[in-house]
Task: inverse folding
């Protein structure tokens, strides 16, 4: 659920730091069951060298590091990476290096990289044993192609037979949030159909793995309910994903917030909390 930028050329009236904070404090934790299921299945531990693609503000990396893994995170959002640095390298200065420059803590083994996966491994570093792409695909038009480009850069950095984990949204009928995401498409059309919500295809993940030359080695489904303290928190959390950016570009933030809040009403409980059951899929593939 990375912050996807609109392709219309419009400049969104958003505060990127506030949005990154909303992601870190509200939305990122919704996928914790997915992270836990994958790490348990792969027995992630002290022998693991993990590369996290689209690592965001670093919660999944922190969970892997707590199991003893050596972790590297890569993302293109400097604001989210600043939060990842606070979590994983709290003693380091809060600097924002130029795109592609590497960051890290001396002696910790933890590295945070702003830019592309190609900058994620020094020439003399051991190969990665696990590569994760936890940002779910199967939600936006074109997201599978974007993941394929990341894998093309990342898989040469992995050891032979390393596990590559791809994640995606489950079937729309099992994801309550799908009905809310349709608001983004409704508001973005007819100005733009690129980067907007689309129904999930059952074989999205398998196709991406096959195109990347990876060997399938299992899959699973995990319940990841989206729960929020109130409608305002739900709106902030969902818009922090960037999935509503095309709608904001086509209309405005106020209109999107209003219609998103209305779409959330069926999922609001009597105590004001919002609860949306969802199922996410993951595929484990192996490098040649």
Result:
């Amino acid at each position: 659920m990375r912050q996807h930028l609109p392709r219309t050329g419009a400049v969104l009236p958003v505060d990127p730091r506030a949005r990154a904070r909303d992601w870190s404090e509200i939305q990122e934790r919704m996928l914790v069951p997915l992270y836990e299921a994958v790490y348990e299945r792969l027995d992630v531990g002290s022998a693991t060298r993990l590369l996290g693609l689209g690592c965001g503000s670093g919660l999944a990396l922190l969970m892997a590091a707590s199991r003893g893994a050596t972790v590297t995170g890569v993302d293109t959002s400097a604001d989210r990476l600043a939060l990842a640095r606070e979590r994983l390298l709290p003693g380091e200065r809060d600097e924002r290096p130029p795109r592609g420059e590497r960051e890290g803590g001396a002696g910790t083994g933890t590295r945070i990289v702003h830019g592309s996966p190609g900058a994620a491994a020094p020439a003399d570093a051991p190969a990665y044993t696990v590569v994760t792409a936890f940002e779910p695909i199967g939600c936006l038009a074109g997201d599978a192609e974007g993941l394929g480009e990341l894998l093309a850069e990342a898989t040469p950095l992995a050891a032979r037979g390393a596990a590559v984990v791809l994640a995606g949204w489950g079937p729309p009928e099992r994801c309550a949030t799908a009905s809310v995401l349709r608001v983004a498409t409704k508001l973005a059309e007819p100005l733009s159909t690129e980067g907007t919500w689309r129904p999930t295809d059952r074989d999205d993940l398998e196709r991406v793995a096959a195109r990347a030359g990876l060997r399938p080695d299992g899959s699973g489904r995990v319940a990841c309910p989206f729960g929020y303290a109130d409608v305002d928190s739900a709106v902030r959390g969902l818009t922090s994903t960037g999935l509503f950016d095309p709608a904001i570009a086509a209309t405005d933030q106020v209109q999107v917030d209003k219609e998103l809040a209305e779409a959330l009403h069926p999922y609001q409980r009597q105590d004001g909390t919002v609860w949306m059951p969802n199922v996410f899929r993951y595929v484990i593939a192996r490098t040649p």
About this structure: Confidence is low (pLDDT under 50) at residues 2-11, 94-98. The radius of gyration is 18 Å. The first helix runs from residue 16 to 27.
